Amino acid sequence: MARGALWILVIVTCIIVYLQHAYGSRVCDTQVSEIEVKKEKQRLEFPSNQNTSGNVYHCRWRLTTEDEKYTIEVAMQSVFIGHQVNCSMSSLTVYDGHDPSDFLLRQECSNRTEQMVVNSSNEYVYIVWRLPEGLTTSNTFTLWYAALDNDDKTHRFTNTTVAGVIAGVILFIIFTLSIIMAVICCLRNRSQTEIRNMRREDSTAC
């Protein structure tokens, strides 16, 4: 009786492990999913049944505009990463070009709910979604993308960049004012020195 119960437990455990491996541990493939980008805004998310091939998820995407005169705007809506160890383990990376050898636009390695917008400088954007071994339900992202006229391309990164620009302007103003004050002090000291010399000359003449 006990031996029969043990065999049943072993069989049930094997079935559970198989189902988890077959349906709950889908991994990223090495193929690149090609996406044509139009002017209408479109969504890319993970996980998604549209980005699934058998037991494997697409985790690399190449966005290409239908016309070379367009660039691509990517708006990261949300990123949730369960294993926040480092960027080599889990990350969402966006490159400004045809492949990962091109310029890095943005890399997210932790949870983000604030929208982040970046723009390419050409007709390509390459996206890599790096996951730990297997798939966990806590690793998800949602982003939007659309083609823009080439004349309208502007790189918009983070609020930190704007704050950095403002801080730079403030520092420049402070630096400029410091130089002006130093020049004024030098001129004042020079005029005071000249006045003293003139008084000495007058007293000597007397």
UniProtKB/TrEMBL annotation:
Organism: Mizuhopecten yessoensis (Japanese scallop)
Keywords: Disulfide bond, Membrane, Signal, Transmembrane, Transmembrane helix
Any Pfam family the entry gives: CUB
CDD domains membership: CUB
PROSITE patterns tied to this protein: CUB
Protein name in the entry: CUB domain-containing protein
Keyword Disulfide bond: yes
CUB domain location: 28-148
InterPro entries (alphabetical): CUB_dom, Sperma_CUB_dom_sf
TM stretches of this protein: 162-187
Residues spanning the signal sequence: 1-24
